[in-house]
Amino acid sequence: MSNLVSLEQRGALAILRIDNPPVNALSPAVVQGIKAAVDRFEANPSMRALVVCAAGRTFVAGGDISEFSKPDFTTEPFNTTLNRIENLGRPVVAVLHGTVLGGGLELAMACHYRIAAPSTRLGLPEVLLGILPGSHGTQRLPRLVGVKQALNMMLSGRPIGADRALQAGLVDALAEGDPDAAAVQFMEGLVAAGKGPRRTGERTVSMEDVEPDFFETMLDEVKTKKGAYPAPQRIVHCVEAAATLPLLQGQGVEARLFEECRVSPQSEAMRKLFFAEREATRIPGVAENVAPRPIRKVGVIGAGTMGGGIAMNFANADIPVVIIETSQEALDRGLGIVRKNYENTAAKGKLAPGEPARRMGLLTGSLDFQDLADCDLVIEAVFENLDIKKQVSQRLGAVCKPGAIIASNTSTLDVDVLATASGRAADFLGMHFFSPANVMRLLEIVRGAQTAPDVLATIVRLAKTIGKVPVVSGVCYGFIGNRMLESYLRESEFLMMEGASPAQIDRAIQSLGLPMGPCRMLDLAGLDVAAKVVIERGKAGALPADPSYRAVVQKMMELGRFGQKTGFGYYRYDGRTPVPDPEVETICIALAEKYGIARRTGITDQEIIERCLYPLVNEGARILEEGIAYRPGDIDLVWVNGYGFPDYRGGPMHLADTIGIAKIAGRLDHYAQLRGDQHGYWSISLLLAFMAERGLHFRDWPIKPEN
Ligand code: 3HC
Ligand code: NAI
């Protein structure tokens, strides 16, 4: 028998234990081991009942995702074993703990009974990987918990707690204490009650609360909301099959639709992101076993847009926060916004009624930097001004306790300069949250020249604690995301001056699945804020010697067209609805004339996509070449979690792989010919050129171009 799965007899009980650390994923060897254990159990009548459990921190967390891309992947051996387990003539109980997910829950549902430790989480998260539960989950879950609850779990991918699972009928009992003892006790109870096997597959799906047009309505809903994803519509079809067909036929429908999802490019992209997210926590030069520093209390400087949101992240994770402001008025305003935020969430039923007050109780306002003396981490989120930030960094260096970590939320300034100002460069790093900071999942962690390895390890771990996706970036203007964004915004402005309208540009970009194109995005963020960044960079001598560079946004600011907040920007606003404004075209015509840019008609959506996206990929390649980002997957995580790049396209670098690197290089060359390249806008990075020449993809990373 495989050493990943054991079968041990204890009296009349047989205990099947899966032991495949870290999460007991169902690799082919584990599946084979389960099959062999079932064979032995079947052949030995002295084993009167079977207990299925797993060793380590969790029950089975699902199928082995790393297997899904293999051409010969099949769920068949596992699925056959599941039906065999269900059909056993002696009772089978699953003993659950940790995270019972995907194939793990499907295994549990094939057992006749389920008992769970109170802290267990149970779910079918396949949809988040672009697939559907392919080991009978779509057929057994509705039989256990009903159509609506089953669809809710499968379409959201969100796990439920053991309490809710008990109420819903997904588990039969909660088991405190030693799981083996609980299993024995549960089995004794069964025997005493004269109960034998209880097969989920023999149940019918209750249609009591299901309206006649329910499936049709659900299909319409998921088509509208999730039409770009392969799984949601197919999940609805599978559940309808569960409700209307016998088990085996329903399983057939599921198998066919699972396979369609598995081989889809969307699922491949989403699976790649799953592994990229885990890979991103491995940082070159930081040993995996380095001990992180404890973070028990956090300080935040500035209770503005970002400071308030940043503080909420920690309060949400039960970590107390001290917030420092310059005046009582600013402090009251900032904390007032946080309170309102919590209250609104509670009013929507997404937070328990007592939670706003409890979380506010974790936030302490102060006007005195001395109150930071016992904080383990202090994050400054004051105005984006180098002198002010240097002063604040210096004060933090003076008041923070030895070993405290000091972080800046700057989006554009040099983290190394601030680190030096603090006098504690080893304890210093950037923590670039995205707005709204309590919502956006991305956290760019900016590694200074002297940031200590344990400081990085601490912040990566803390990011996970507060539910963020951490990506480490080196120091450069804009770090990974905003640096790449620059070329995208540059081209969108040139396109406007050449004759494309903001609406056409946004439509073309949104056709890729981004929620907003560049014009709507900047109107929302504020064109004044965006223009000031360009102006500051100009003052610092960091812009190309091209007077037409980002001329549109600067003109917009000059004209007071700040975007949504003033009712005018690249669009005119009717409430929050953008309406095309002919005035913008007039402005662009005047700018084109001023800078000698030829106006054209017939700019295609394809040109817009190529001109906005391909330079962005080229800049991504440069970022990799310079070691600012460690892996293409890190860049993809930044764009998916910080800029709304659709996860089903896997991020810009993954998308570039699917388009073809040589094709992208060819088009960059084409635009260099067409538009001239005196400012280097179209110069192909060394890495991209190397890859194009050799037919390489970003997925072949690491790639070392020859000099
Ligand atoms: N397959 C393969 N590897 C997996 C895995 C899986 N299902 N789940 C986790 N891992 C790996 C991770 O890649 C990571 O590896 P690494 O250490 O080499 O980077 C390691 O296990 C630990 O994972 P995490 O860092 O994510 O550990 P956490 O403790 O933070 O989280 C978890 C644990 C909640 C189980 C989380 O890993 C998770 O959500 N896993 C995915 C669960 C899932 O999606 N299951 C469904 C799979 S699809 C399926 O079952 C298909 C079936 O219907 C046919
Ligand atoms: P903001 O203007 O809303 O808030 C700044 C706050 O800092 C103000 O309340 C101000 O009173 C306070 N402040 C200024 N000097 C202070 C000092 N010496 N001590 C204590 N408090 C002080 O600014 P916002 O938007 O919150 O930005 C803050 C930082 O976050 C900036 O570095 C910005 O670049 C960065 N950032 C902003 C993003 C955004 O979308 N707004 C996104 C990512 C980063």
From TrEMBL:
Q: Does the keyword Ion transport apply?
A: no
Question: What is the predominant subcellular site recorded for this chain?
Answer: other
One Gene Ontology term from the biological process aspect of the record: fatty acid beta-oxidation
Compartments reported by the entry: Peroxisome
Q: What does the UniProt keyword field contain?
A: Fatty acid metabolism, Isomerase, Lipid degradation, Lipid metabolism, Lyase, Multifunctional enzyme, NAD, Oxidoreductase, Peroxisome
Q: In which pathway does it act?
A: Lipid metabolism; fatty acid beta-oxidation
Tell me the GO molecular function terms. (3S)-3-hydroxyacyl-CoA dehydrogenase (NAD+) activity; enoyl-CoA hydratase activity; isomerase activity; NAD+ binding
Kindly provide the name given to this protein in its UniProt entry. Answer: Enoyl-CoA hydratase
- Give the species: Noviherbaspirillum saxi
